[in-house]
Structure formats: structure tokens, C-alpha cells
Amino acid sequence: MPIKVPDLLPAKGKLQEENIFVMDESRAFTQDIRPLKILILNLMPLKQQTETHLLRLLGNSPLQIDIGLLHTSTHTSKNTSPEHMKQFYKSIEDVKQNKYDGLIITGAPIEKLPYEEVKYWDELSQIMEWSKTNVTSTLHICWGAMAGLYYHFNIDKYIMPTKLSGIYPHTLNDPREKLLSGFDEEFMVPHSRNADIRKEDIENTPGLKILSESDKAGVYLVASTDGKQIFVTGHPEYDSQTLKKEFDRDTAAGLHPQIPEDYFPDDDPEQIPKLRWRTHSNMLISNWLNYYVYQETPYEL
Fold first, then answer.
1. Do 194 and 160 touch, CB atoms closer than 8 A?
2. Which of 40, 145, 205, 263 has the fewest CB atoms within 10 Å distance of its CB?
3. CA-based diameter of the chain, in Å?
4. Where is this site: Important for substrate specificity (predicted)?
5. DSSP states along 95-133
6. Catalytic one among 71, 191, 235, 280?
7. 142 is catalytic
8. Alpha-carbon torsion (197, 201, 202, 205), positive or negative
9. What whole-number distance in Å separates Cα of residue 76 and Cα of residue 279?
10. Which member of 111, 123, 213, 237 is catalytic?
11. From the annotation, which residues make up the binding site for substrate?
């Protein structure tokens, strides 16, 4: 089944080129079905790129999904046009009376900042508090996962001496967990972050369970015992070129970044990276939508 997106959203054309089943608003009105209402709080600077990344994964589900895009009104995006933001995005004030089946909170390249120094931290805290009563299940990604663990469970992040960037193998802590249904025993995930969450802090916190981790990248998947909060420390939504674009950007800025680990063939930035994590990424989002959203959400929101 398709995802339902605004008729003029730029990501729609890109997804249709990839044969992702996208339904525009005009066609969706003719179907007698209640789609899942999924809200995406997009904190990434390149918002159109992130829209495509996430909609690609959401469009692989057999469920019909109605997408809404949310931004923080206390921060003005410097990398996305005001016209795009005005046309497609809403603020929490616009949607706070609504109920949603699922919420996705993206990452943001601000891991080195203390949470309280983030310009929109108060607004993000308001959104996360609102999600407790207005959202069936929330999926937090990368910095969004760190922020969620800090807000909901008081687990702080730690700055790493060097940036973690690359593709890393991960294993399953309990294959019987619904979120891990169909996963291979070892699977690859992109990471790109300057901070980490300590395993012992999670293990010492009631109400949380570590589902997957990596010898090199650390804790990857964490879930609250009630399934309402899912935390993903990596970037399963990234496409094959995202880490390359980040590496090229940092190189051009004179930051002398390390070459992303196990990403470029032969560690040669002139070679084309291969996409080796799409299957796991699709399965992760499909399992979340099915087991933590669709199977749990009420028919009447």
C-alpha cells in the first residue's frame, strides 16, 4: 500500500522514479480506508533530503500512511527555502489538538551542544511531552534518540574523541523481539555522530531494553518496555551517497574528516559506495509500523 503525501511535495517525484508506491491526496480521498497518521518532526538541516529518505522507507509498508511534516517554530531553517517550509510544514501549535498513530523524530547535527543550549530544546521538550498522550509510538533517530533518552529517562550523552562515521555490523540481543522480526543475525547500519550513549546507563534504567548493538558502534536499538518509545542511534534511513556528501562537505570546510569506515570500496573516496543496509532499514520501519503502531493504535484516534 502507498504513502499519502501532499500533491506538490518534491520528494514525490523522486520516490516515483524509484518505483515507491506514492499516492497523492486527490486519489487517497477516493479510498474507503483509515490510513495510519504518521507525523515526522524533521530536525535535519537538509529537510528535502531527509523527507525522501524517510518516505522511501515508509512507502515500503503494506499499510496506507498519511504523512504530516512538523518543524520547530523556534528555529528557522537555513538550508531549506521558506516557501517549502510554509507550504508543507506545521508547528506543534498547529497540531497539538490532534492524535497520531506514530511520530518520527529525526537526528540533528548538534551532538556536541548540551541539550539545554539547543535553541529549540524547550519546544522539543514540549513535543516529546505531548507525544506521551497524543501518539501511539514514537521512533527517535540518532540525535533524536539521544534527546529522547535524556528527556524521558534522564540518560545523558557523552562526546566521543573522534566522530563515529561509517558502516558497522550489528547483532541481535533477543531475536524474539517483534522489532527484530525477520532480521539477519548480523546486519549493517550507517552511523554518523559525535556523541554516544553508555550501555551501562541504559541497563541501569528501569523500563528500557537494549535490542541490538555493535562492537564498534555501541548500542543501536533501545525500546521502552511499553513500546511507546523506540530509540535508534544510527541512520538506517541514509541512502548510499549520504555519508559521501557529509565527508565531501566537511573536507571542503577544512575539517579534515576521517574517511567513513567500511564505506568507500578500498577506503578510496573516489570510488562509488555500495548500498548494503536497505533490507534491514525497510524491515525496521515495517516492523515498527506493524507491531508498535498498527497493532496497538485505536481505530478511532
1. yes
2. 205
3. 55
4. 192
5. HTT--EEEEEE---S-TTS-GGGSTTHHHHHHHHHHHHH
6. 235
7. yes
8. negative
9. 35
10. 237
11. 163, 192, 249
Numbered residues of the known binding site: 163, 192, 249
- Catalytic hit among 53, 71, 142, 280: 142
Residues in the chain: 301
Query: Rounded distance, CA 173 to CA 139, Å?
Result: 19
Whether 186 is catalytic: no
Q: Which residues contact 90 (CB under 8 A, 6 or more apart)?
A: 68, 69, 70, 71
Structural domains in the chain? 3-239+277-294 (3.40.50.880), 241-274 (no CATH)
10-residue mean pLDDT profile of the chain (301 residues): values are 65 66 53 81 95 92 89 90 94 97 96 96 98 98 98 97 97 94 96 97 97 98 97 97 96 94 97 96 95 89 76
